[in-house]
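In this supplementary section we document a worked example of the pipeline. Step one takes a protein sequence of length 369 as its only input; no multiple sequence alignment statistics are reported here. Step two produces a three-dimensional model, which step three serialises into structure tokens for compact storage. The input and output of this example are shown verbatim.
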Amino acid sequence: MENLLIGNGVNINFTGNQFTNASIIQRALTKTKLKKTDEDYSKETAQLLEYLYSEFENTVNGINDQFLYMSSDKEVLEDFKIRYKNQDTCKIFDVGLEDYFILYEIFSNKHGWKNPNRYWYRELLQRMFFDSIYLNGQIQRIWKKFPKWFMGFLNDFNNIFTTNYDSNLESCVNKTVYHLHGSFSVLDDKYNPDSFRNHLEDMKGVDYSYVRKHPYLYSTSLFAYCGSMKEFSMKQPLQGNTGIEKFASGFKEGIVDPLELERWCTSTNQMLHNLGESIKLKQEHPEYMISEPYSIREFQEIKENLSIIGLSPSNDNHIFKWINDNQALDKIHYFYFNPGEIAVVKKLLISAELIFKDVKAFWRQLDNE
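The serialised model returned by step three reads:
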């Protein structure tokens, strides 16, 4: 079985600098400052990004350590400092997109921001970045630059996985493409009127018409500053379905007192109330499920060989952990952009035979065919 995992490096190869980190941030700032309305996100979102950048130097120098509290966040912070410590200069567009979200955590804690505002400001920042990545739909048309040899190369694989949000691969292969970090083409359950959660009583009648103009800003696409947070978000739908099904089955079989369910449904505790409503909904409509947009199960079940192209080991440790935990893999072909990635990957992947290939040589070789 031949499996392929593709990251943003493939898009960058066919578009030059258009979808690099720096270009995305520069576009985001320029467009946001020129916005005439607050539709989707406000002009102030660009100012928020500048505020976050103002915390960059203090964060690298350890002055902001006190504003991260969880041990997992502190581990991410140490990695952040190591990666940026020896850079002579680091402008606002040199900071990684996802690294801005750890600066956001620091800034929020420093200024005492609480939910729901803390949540919504983060959403606005995320939408600004997604809008810049989407680039008026240009990101969805990269596949038109794919040469025939590359399309043939893709179709030689049994399974294709990607961390990208775009649908370029779907446009040139005759098989399902599995998105690990979501897709611009799939609405997040929060904004989908037909989703499980929006069938609950307290969500009925909510108007989601505002998402129709730019649905990609309200999609399942996932941003997080570390692999563990991505993994948590990716597993939530699966765990939600499993939990609700177990509860619904328990009440149906009489294992749990039906009166308890009624108490939950009438509870003033919103979480308990929603749980009760969810169980009732599942009993009445067994076919209803929380959508599972992140292809975790499919990825964890791959066998034999895996090729990885365009994916840096920096921010996606959760994916490399899944690969390393997969005892059914025999060989892993890792296409590196920077030779320094070899040592990192060797530490992350120790359970299968590793074969390293220079991705720049790969592109040159195939260009000549």
